[in-house]
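User: Is it possible to get a 3D structure for a protein together with its bound compound? The compound here is zinc ion. I've pasted both below.
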Amino acid sequence: MTAVLTGKDSTSVVPESKKLVRVFKWEVSELTLPKLLFYEDAYMREARARVVDVRGREVFLDQTIFFAEAGGQEGDRGWINDIEVLEVRPSDYAHVLSREPSFSPGDEVILRLNWERRYRLMRLHSATHLVCIAVREILRTDVIGSHVGVEHARVDVAFAGSIKPHLPQISEFVNDLVRQNLPIEIFWRGETRIWRLKEWEIPCCGLHVRRTSEIGEITLKRRNIGRGKERIVIYVRP
Ligand SMILES: [Zn+2]
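Assistant: Yes, that's possible. Here is the predicted structure of the complex:
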């Protein structure tokens, strides 16, 4: 969805989440940072762009639909003029291709996302936020880390003992939000990009589905990762 600029200060922020979600900061100088089209529309699968620079297999663009890994969400894959994009480097926003391209600076190219992969990342990222809310509401504890991959996502929480007895309740909580088909809003408050569902807000630089029903059924598994730390592994359907 299009980012809505608003200075409105409303509803409660989930303060714990601020620790885990590093708000959008790719360490890219403004000179090489392309226009990030996914912030205008996360559902854009194809776009045209102008080549700014080519260094071997590395391509720099004036605008892009490729998300570079940030805030725990893995980066995108896809194709530029049918050459595979192997990586989008967060440090300088280079699109690293599978081979040297024949195009040059100034040329127009066609960008195509591996949409299947990206849409899974969006669904899993939104699912992760629902789990963060459940952790806050049910376990009343801090989320200390998270990661959104293609196969699954995970949320780490500070918790003494096992969360296993609480897992059915957490699962019911998140799947109930999915069934309600609630709208997910994204907007900026000053420099901070905010994700909002009902009264819950989480600062986030990642990409999300528009409504909770798109996530589909969520399955949770528990792992113990050390004393006082528990991990919730998050799965969605294919
Ligand atoms: Zn997030």
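Helices lie at 15-20, 115-139, 167-179. Residues 35-114 form a domain with the Elongation Factor Tu (Ef-tu); domain 3 fold (CATH 2.40.30.130).
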